[in-house]
UniProtKB/TrEMBL annotation:
InterPro entries the record matches: Rossmann-like_a/b/a_fold (IPR014729), UspA (IPR006016)
Superkingdom classification of source: Bacteria
UspA domain segment(s): 1-137
Protein name, entry field: UspA
Any Pfam family matching the protein: Usp
């Protein structure tokens, strides 16, 4: 049913991804799917990495750890973006349209007042892509 699954990740909040990772890993194992871990980042130094190469190495390491945990292929994909705070949704949406992904699994938060003013990343993708989106709280 699902040959490939994408999961956007934020390496600065990996502690909040456990449920979504479990769902992703379990679905990938069930359907023998490949998982793409997507991370949008700027080329400027950040608290995670000094440059894109180091960021990719950290994401690769995180993907390898998930492979060991779930026994399925996790491929790290870095999506460079000039301003991730402003363009993350568009960058993810562009990547999803350019690549053969059957399902997107995303960690989500409990809605709050600010969600009435600003859309969440999951709601943006659900309304702007033709991919199936599974939000995990």
């Amino acid at each position: 049913m699902y040959q490939s699954i994408a999961m956007p990740v934020d390496l600065s909040h990996t502690d909040k991804l456990e449920k979504a990772l479990k769902v992703t890993g379990d679905l990938a194992k069930l359907y023998s799917s490949k998982v793409y871990l997507l991370a949008v980042t700027a080329s400027a130094p950040s608290s995670i990495a000094h440059n894109l190469k180091e960021f990719k190495e950290r994401l690769d390491s995180y993907a390898k750890a998930q492979e060991g945990e779930f026994g399925v292929i996790f491929e790290a994909v870095v999506i460079p973006c000039a301003d991730p705070a402003a363009d993350m949704d568009k960058s993810l949406n562009h990547w999803l349209h350019e690549n053969p992904v059957d399902l997107v699994v995303m960690a989500s938060h409990v809605p709050s007042f600010k969600d009435h003013i600003f859309h969440s990343h999951g709601s943006f993708l659900a309304s702007h892509t033709d991919k199936s989106i599974l939000l995990v709280r």
